[in-house]
Structures are given as C-alpha cells and as structure tokens.
C-alpha cells in the first residue's frame, strides 16, 4: 500500500513538473498547481478496509474507514453520499447518532495504532478458525452417523 502511494506521489510530482515548466502562460501554471494539490489531497483522502491514519478524524461504517468527509447532525457526508448509523471518531471521542461517547479499543472500528488493529484482528481470526474447525468436526460426526442409518 505504501509503495503504491509513493508511486502515485512520484507520478504527481512528474506531472506537475512537466506542466509547470513546459507551459508558458500563467493560467496553465495555475492549472498545473491545482492539479498537483488536488491529486495530493486525493491520495490522503479515501476509503479503506483497515484504519490508515490514526491522527485524523474518520467514519467507520460497514467495516470500512472513510477519511475526508463531514459529520453533521448524526450524518456523515462523503463524496455527495450521506451515511447514517456509523461511528465517527474525532479528538478521542466516538459520535454515534448525534451523541458523544468515550471509545473503547477494539469496538466499533476504534484502534489507536496499527499494532492494536493487527492484535485484535489476529485474535478474531483465531477465534473464527477455531469455530470453523469445531463446525467441521461436528459436520463430519453428523455425516458419519447418517451413513449408518440408511433408509430402505
């Protein structure tokens, strides 16, 4: 992910350099500067499956992390879409349906660092694997008993 971001920033820098120094008019140079700023902001703002920035406000909805939108009156507005029933985190608090709560690590998409995120998800993955193993064992035992009791 970091490698992709670095490639994007390199491409942005190359494009900006080309547009700024090959174009002669001031309006072309202004356009190039606007493109560079917009592209840089676009690489910072986004939607991710895991938390990316721990120092910026974000919205957690449906297992996705949204950065760069606006939270107002219990709604989160991101790229013209209005989300509801998600959790908004800003300055150490969780906002849900217009109320402010103290967040708890590991609940509702709140993690203070990448290390915490990996730790909690590793535990969940282990629990899921254990559950799947038990289900598979029960399924095998059920089928084993079914084979002995064939009907006619």
Task: Give an overview of the whole structure.
β5 and β6 form a beta hairpin. This protein has 152 residues and is α+β, with helices and mostly antiparallel strands. It folds into 3 domains: 1-44; 46-112, no CATH class; 119-152. It is extended. Helices cover 49% and strands 21% of the residues. It has helices at 2-22, 26-44, 114-148, and strands at 46-48, 58-61, 64-67, 70-72, 75-78, 81-83, 87-90, 93-96, 99-101. It contains 3 helices and 9 strands; from the N terminus they run ααβββββββββα.
Along the chain, the helix and strand elements come as HHEEEEEEEEEH
Structural class: alpha+beta
Mean pLDDT: 75
Q: What is the radius of gyration?
A: 24 Å
The portion of residues forming beta strands comes to 15-25%
How is the biggest beta sheet arranged?
Answer: 6 strands, antiparallel
- The backbone outline, from C-alpha atoms, is extended
Question: What assembly state would you assign to the polypeptide chains in this entry?
Answer: single chain
| Count of extended strands | 9
Helix content: 40-55%
Order of the strands making up the biggest sheet: 1-3-2-7-8-9
Number of helices: 3
The total number of structural domains is 3
What low-confidence regions span 5 or more consecutive residues with pLDDT below 50?
A: 39-43
Distance between the termini: 60 Å
């Amino acid at each position: 992910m970091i490698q992709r971001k670095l490639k994007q920033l390199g491409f942005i820098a190359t494009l900006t350099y080309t547009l700024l120094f090959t174009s002669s008019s001031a309006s072309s140079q202004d356009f190039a500067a606007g493109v560079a700023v917009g592209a840089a902001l676009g690489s910072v703002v986004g939607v991710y499956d895991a938390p990316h920035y721990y120092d910026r406000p974000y919205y957690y909805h449906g297992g996705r992390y949204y950065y760069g939108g606006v939270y107002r009156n219990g709604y989160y507005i991101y790229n013209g879409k209005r989300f509801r029933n998600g959790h908004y985190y800003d300055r150490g608090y969780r906002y849900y349906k217009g109320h402010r709560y103290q967040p708890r690590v590991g609940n509702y998409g709140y993690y203070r660092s990448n290390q915490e995120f990996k730790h909690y998800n590793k535990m969940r993955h282990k629990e899921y694997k254990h559950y799947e193993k038990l289900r598979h064992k029960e399924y095998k035992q059920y089928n084993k008993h079914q084979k002995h009791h064939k009907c006619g």
